[in-house]
Amino acid sequence: MTLDFIVLVSIVLVASLLQTSTGYGFSIIGTPFLLLMYPAHTAIQINIVLSICLSAFMIFNIRKEVDTSLFIRLIKGSIVGLFFGIFIYLFLDIQLLKMGVGLLIIVLTVLLIFQLTIRRTINKDLAAGGISGLLTTSIGVPGPPLLLYFSGARIDKVTLRSTTLAYYLFVYSASLVMQITFGGTNKEIWIDSMLALPALFAGIFLGQLLFKWISQETFRVITYIILIFTGVYLFITSF
Q1: What is the pTM of this model?
Q2: Domain boundaries along the sequence of the chain
Q3: 133-172 burial, b if ≥16 CB within 10 A, otherwise e?
Q4: DSSP 8-state secondary structure symbol assigned to residue 153
Q5: Which tens digit of pLDDT belongs to each residue from 113-141?
């Protein structure tokens, strides 16, 4: 058992536990550490493959909790964002995007902490999906726009977790197809993803136990911590 394998398993275990217990966190926690181990495109695709496996496994248990109308609007918005994101992934400077997104997340999270509220509308649902789709195909991190939007709109934790996991199943699958079609893939991505599956399922099991014990207020605090971590990480790594 090599050190790289132990590190990979540890990353996937913690990230999947957080994702299952909150509805967010796999990409936010997993991607930064995967980028320390792999080239950027490899790390992003491993993250996407494992996220698809997690969402597909979880959706059968929580499908009745999904807000269907919100889910459909997020998908509609994401379709446009996915195409812009793949263009960034292939041709533009991802570092500038990471810097801008990181700063925006930090500012908006501070506003949320000071009780900023967001009134949900159909157009805002579509916009949240669009921005999330763009970030999925470009840097493999769809969560922050949804997390900011849903936190500001004070959506309850059950609806938030189930709807985002259903959305992730769609947006990650579409993103993976687009990345492979336009940018290709490699054997290492699929072998290492399969090796990490046991850790992924262990994290899912532990995360479901944890979810039952997290109050709405604790859930909100965890949300802010995740967002601040993401914003700081994206900003620092853009240099």
Answers
A1: 0.82
A2: 3-236
A3: bbbbbbbbbbbbbbbbbbbbbebebeebbbbbbbbbbbbb
A4: T
A5: 887 788 999 999 999 999 999 988 887 77
